[in-house]
């Protein structure tokens, strides 16, 4: 019987960083395209679940329940959960048009941080429909809160926050040691931590231990199951 192998993925400035977990190894990956990243990981062993920190399933109107519930679950770190704009906003030509579309369909504007995700979100939106892999959406702060058993009060961009999260991961056997090669050179500390906790969540999904926010997932006109797993 083959051992379980999962992949956690987070966006970084140069593309995507991934952490693959198996019973015996932790392997880092980096690529500019999500399909290339997963293919690179697949070349070294089959992947049971891919967990990624990017919205999957875009609303037609209003807010996603996944985002609302994730903000509650993140506690003091609620602001790290961006409210996902409606699909029409991501299809708009520029930020002002996107904000107008979202005000019309969701009664609120669009944060520039959320709009900046558009290239990567559209990349995943296309890839997830074509891949044969099981792909789930996660949010790192929700996963870290689940891992800690309580809300985290310190940002991961601080030394204390990064150390605390590294300790939590190490307690689950996810030890981020060494320079991590290309992935470590290309990705920020927070990106690597987020990919690692995504891998932890992917392992929970593969073992049937994870839950979804909401339960059951929502579905919009794109037909994708929309939920954040933790």
Tell me what you see in this structure.
- This protein is globular.
- It contains ten helices and seven strands.
- A hairpin with a 2-residue loop joins strand 1 and strand 2.
- The two termini are 26 Å apart.
- It has 230 residues and is an alpha/beta fold.
**Alpha carbon gap, first and last residue:** 26 Å
What is the beta-strand fraction? Answer: 15-25%
Instruction: List the strand order in the largest sheet.
Output: 3-2-1-4-5-7-6
**Averaged pLDDT:** 95
Residues in helices, as a percent range: 40-55%
User: Low-confidence segments, ≥5 residues, pLDDT <50?
Assistant: none
Radius of gyration: 17 Å
Number of H- or I-type helical stretches = 10
Structural class of the secondary structure composition? alpha/beta
Q: Let me know the largest β-sheet.
A: 7 strands, mixed
Oligomer: single chain
DSSP strand tally: 7
Taken in chain order, the helices and strands follow as: EEEHEHHHHHEHHHHEE
State the shape.
globular
């Amino acid at each position: 019987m083959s051992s379980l192998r999962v992949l956690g993925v987070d966006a970084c400035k140069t593309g995507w960083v991934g952490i693959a977990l198996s019973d015996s190894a932790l392997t880092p990956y980096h690529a500019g395209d999500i399909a290339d990243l997963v293919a690179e990981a697949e070349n070294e062993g089959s992947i049971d679940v891919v967990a990624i920190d990017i919205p999957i399933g875009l609303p037609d109107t209003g807010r996603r329940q996944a985002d609302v519930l994730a903000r509650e679950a993140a506690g003091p770190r609620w602001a790290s959960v961006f409210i996902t704009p409606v699909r029409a906003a991501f299809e708009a030509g520029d930020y002002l048009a996107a904000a107008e579309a979202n005000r019309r369909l969701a009664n609120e504007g669009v944060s520039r941080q959320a709009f900046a995700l558009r290239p990567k979100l559209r990349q995943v939106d296309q890839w997830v429909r074509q891949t044969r892999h099981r792909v789930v959406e996660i949010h790192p702060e929700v996963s870290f809160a689940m891992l800690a058993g309580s809300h985290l009060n310190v940002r991961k961009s601080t030394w204390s926050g990064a150390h605390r999260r590294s300790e939590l991961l190490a307690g689950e056997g996810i030890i981020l040691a060494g320079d991590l090669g290309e992935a470590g050179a290309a990705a920020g500390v927070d990106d690597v931590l987020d990919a690692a906790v995504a891998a932890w969540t992917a392992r929970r999904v593969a073992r049937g231990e994870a839950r979804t926010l909401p339960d059951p997932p929502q579905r919009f006109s794109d037909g994708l199951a929309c939920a954040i797993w933790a």
